[in-house]
Amino acid sequence: MTPIKQHPPGSAGLQGFTRREAEVVAMLAQGLAAEGIAERLGIARGSAKWYLRQVFPKLGVHSHQDAVARARQLHDPANTTDGASNPNASPAHLPQPPNPLIGRAQELAQLLEWLGSSGGLLTITGAAGCGKTRLALAVATEISRRPGSQVFWVDLTATTDPALVDSAIAAALDVKVSSGHISVPALAESLNAAPTLLVLDNCEHLAAACTSVGVFLLAACPLLSVLATSRAALGGSGSRCLRLEPLAVPPPASAAAAAPADIAGVASVALFAERARAADTSFGLSSHNASAVARICRTLDGLPLALELAAARMKILTADQLAERLEDALSLLTRNQPAAARRHATLRRALDWSFDLLPPAQQALLARLSVFSGGWELDDAEHVCPGGVLSDGDILDALSDLVDHSLVVVESRTDGSRRFRLLEVVRQYADEQLRISGGRSRFRARHAEHFAAVARQAAQELNGRWERVWMQRLDRNRGNFREALAWGLASTEGAALGASAAGSLAQFWQMRGEFKEGLGWHLRYLSRSQDLSVGDTAELLDSSGFLAVHAGQVNQARQYWQQAIEKFTSVNDDAGVGRQLNYLAHITMEADPQEAAALASRGVELERAAGDDWWVSACLFAQGDAAFLQPDLEGAAKCHQESLAIARRLGNQFAIARRCVRLSQLSRIGGDFDRSRRYLAESWATARAAGDDWGLTMALAAYGSLAAAVGDLEASAMLLGATQARLENYGARLWTVDRKEYSHTSRMVRAQMGNEAFEAIASRGAASADHPEHLVAAVEKAATPSSLPDGTDDAGRPLTRREVEVLGHLASGASNQDIAAALGLSIRTVERHIANLYLKLGVSGPAARTAAAHFAFRHGLATGLVPAGRKPLPKP
Amino acid sequence: MNTEQNKAVVRRFFTAFEEQDYGALQDILSPELRAYVHGDAEPAGRDELIEVIRGWNTAFSNTRFTVEDQVAEGDLVACRVTMTAVHSGGEFQGIAPAGLPVSSQSLTLERVVDGRITERRVVTNWAEVLQQLTPAAAGTSAAR
Fold it and tell me: Which residues on adjacent β-strands are paired with residue A243?
């Protein structure tokens, strides 16, 4: 399937870019630098630079020179003919029409009329090669030009499992998933924002699933119309069906002695002439060739694809020669069959004829290309297809020939890449040829190896600055990954390869919210564990747990990880065990921080012994968070400091950013606001530079708490609002420590400001969710905390761990007696701690206790951090 | 032979069917094969079954089996299989090919002895498959 999205007006034409960013890219393409861009857009030079900083990581470049090159690629005139500066003018996210639509004016008008009058579920049916997709594309292009309407294009050829139709649609819509599952209601929600046309292309093999999803969506979305293309009609009451016939052909009489003027207006002739001109620019309909052209069109039944294949040969053959050869090739066809069967036979003969004319290398390549599903890029073909008559260096030439002969379709994509594809009917034909030649097994295996390697590389790069580029590559190759995974299951020798590919793709599925698909493949491979090594199975359990936990199936995840521990233990893979302990610590943290700390600290030991620094750092982070929650703030600081030191040594920017957030939080709670601010500033800058959106969100939440701590409630509310908006955008929840702190701060700020004021300011913050820099800058510049008094020696001094504990209980409304009982101290000791607390906080008088409680809330120190009456979960 | 090996033999049968590898089918199917397929009262022998597969591959292309579930006990292997194919090559039960895709669901039970399939029983939803082959039947329901 192709995730091609027609953005509603007002949003960007380039995927993932805001409108302004897209404008900046367009100017980069013209070679402008910051000054020029600022001038053209009428903005400050600093702003232009700021936009450039936003755009560079999105383009995946570091230098201005690279950015210009990349922007030019994106604005290749071959891609976006309507001009770069106005990305909304062209429906750049629909597949590009390969050639003009000929002879379908009536059908186009009919469909547009249906769409205009009642919408609903429309289907274009007709034999393969009739031009169903081309007509649907014309409708989509027309609709997308209407102001305020949006069009989504879903190509279903690479979706074979009926259960995944909704995933394919979600991918095209770029629906963010919150619950961990794609649901049809979630799709409905995003389809109802504006008048929408959803095109489901190539539905015939999924008719029932497409009908039911279509009917459901239509019932839920009054503004939606669905247009499907299928060889057979879809069911469903109230649906309308346009049966697409082949193009009209000249009458038999005129074939004998046709005059150009008589036949030029006949649709099949017009199409043939247009395609013939593409092959031979000097071609024109004349009295010499009119009869032959009429014969060709009749012989080919007016089938557009057959006409196109034939016309591609006009480079070499004359119309007479072509007519003769086609008549020979198609002469054996019986003419008394049902229309559908006859058209099918005609197309097959035309394909046979076209295939037979190819030299052996091209024949071999076409057959082998059938192993790709949903298209390929040159590099993919060069990896998968060579062998025998086709050497590595031949691929490019042979591929060009196949393109020239209209057997392969070229797509230029908005990201500058070229992609190739076989029309489904051609792919089916090529697959037959490959089976006949006996090479299918070998080339499917090669295809699977290649895409397993792509998945493996992607897994290493998905957390870095090339994330966007890799996600796009993975998105484009969904069909190919499915093929590779299916091959691994079907063949005995492919199980290990497929299992490792499934593991490599886990994060991709998670990021796309495609848990049904991801867990489905994992389960199928787990059922093949007899054919896998113990280590491979353990890895598979590891990534199964990863998917399950993100899908919200925490208990299932726990089981997978516990099983993984058994497997890793049995092969003495301590590092593997340590990783599972790290995961288990994270999911145990909320309910039982002590148990989580124990798990994580065992993980630290194992990873230290195994010498795997990265996982030592990860386990230390988990241990630090568990300590934070107990709360053991000194222990937490120790863990996070060491974890940060390792992350710095390894140069892992994401890890540095996140660990700095923790140390900032801990400094703030200890009362050291300057240090807290310094850590956060480092985190923010690091995450920005590395393109770490999650790290930025964590830092933003922490800035919210810091702002509250220094008494800037308004800034805090804005930051909290921005954080919340980002989380909703991802459909994610903050990690336990951040979440607890977030809810404490927001409860406190809300209480002090009043609900209405808080909501109003938070929603202003939410509006800056994508560009919260000015919110952060305000906190960074803020003066000495207004809420903390100065003057006394003790004021502002960090609280001891015990004092923090006492303060937490005090803030939750406990009496001194309660506190003494809870902490196992004498009342006198508690009183002494409280007196010290008051001194350090600079509060006194009758309201001292309330003021101290306020301070605790403000700094996330209220004991609510650890829920009362918790039930420890079963130990692993 | 253990049950895992028996399961692999049955998977190889489906692959050989897909690949039209009749040599491999000769190896996988026992000469003593008794195949009870599609409700036929009399079991088919090995050569007969291979002829049936040849016939299928003439009428249909792009045949693809997905083994959804597979369990084994003793010398028996049971599978739930989804098959997809395209009716593109020749007449099937009196229906001329029109390039329509078909899919079927089958439950199969194979007995594997010494690495070869000696018995095969298959239940398939044939009525639905035949329905998918006629474009007219598929088309009428959607007329407005």
Answer: A125
Instruction: State yes or no: cis peptide before A631, omega within 30 of 0.
Output: yes
A196-201/A240-243 β-pairing: unpaired
Q: Which residue of A528, A529, A532, A537 is the best one to mutate when testing the B interface, meaning the one whose CB has the most B CBs within 10 A? A: A528
Does some domain include residue A832?
A: yes
* Residue at A681 is within a domain: yes
Stretch (H or E) spanning A876: none
The reply to whether B88 touches chain A by the CB within 8 Å rule is yes
Q: Is residue B144 part of a domain?
A: no
Name the pairing type of β-strands A120-125 and A224-230. Answer: parallel
Residue A793: other Cβ atoms inside 10 A: 8
Structurally, chain A folds into a number of domains equal to: 6
What are phi and psi for residue A199, nearest 5 degrees? -100, 125
- B4-18: burial string, b at 16+ Cβ within 10 Å, e else: eebbbbbbbbbbbbb
The Cα angle at residue A792 between residues A789 and A796, in degrees rounded to 5: 55
Q: Which of A335, A356, A377 represents a domain boundary (last residue)?
A: A356
ipTM above 0.90, yes or no: no
Distance CA A173, CA A184 (A): 12
- What is the count of structural domains for chain B? 1
The parent domain of residue B36 ranges over: 3-135
Does A115 map to a domain? yes
pLDDT along chain A (876 residues), means of 10: 31 54 77 76 71 73 69 53 33 69 92 86 89 92 87 88 84 61 69 86 88 85 90 76 90 71 90 92 91 92 92 91 89 71 88 92 96 94 94 92 91 77 92 92 96 95 77 91 95 92 94 85 94 96 94 93 97 96 95 96 96 94 96 95 94 91 94 92 91 89 93 92 88 88 91 90 91 86 48 55 81 79 82 80 69 69 40 29
Mutate to test the interface with B, among A118, A159, A305, A432 (most CBs of B within 10 A): A432
- Interface contacts (A, B; CB < 8 Å): 103
Is residue B114 a part of any domain in this protein?
A: yes
Alpha carbon distance A668, A636 (integer Å): 13
Task: Tell me the torsion sign for CA atoms B37, B42, B46, B47.
Answer: negative
Strand partners, A155: A201
- In this structure, the answer to whether residues A819 and A762 fall within a common structural domain is no
- Which of B8, B88, B138 is closest, CB to CB, to A344? B88
The DSSP call for residue B44 is B
Say yes or no: B48 contacts chain A, CB-CB below 8 A: no
> Burial, A278: exposed, middle or buried (Cβ in 10 Å; 0-12, 13-18, 19+)?
middle
Q: Is residue B84 part of a domain?
A: yes
Structure pTM? 0.74
What's the sign of the alpha-carbon dihedral A224, A225, A229, A235? positive
One domain for residues A707 and A811: no
Range of the domain at A205: 105-243
Cα A620 to Cα A582: distance, rounded to the nearest angstrom: 9
Please indicate, yes or no, whether residues A44 and A120 belong to a single structural domain of this protein. no
CB-based contact A300:A275 (threshold 8 Å): no
Residue A158 in any domain: the answer is yes
Q: Are residues A763 and A816 in the same domain?
A: no
| Cβ A448 vs Cβ A494: under 8 Å | yes
A445 and A344, same structural domain? Answer: no
Residues A161 and A57 in one domain: no
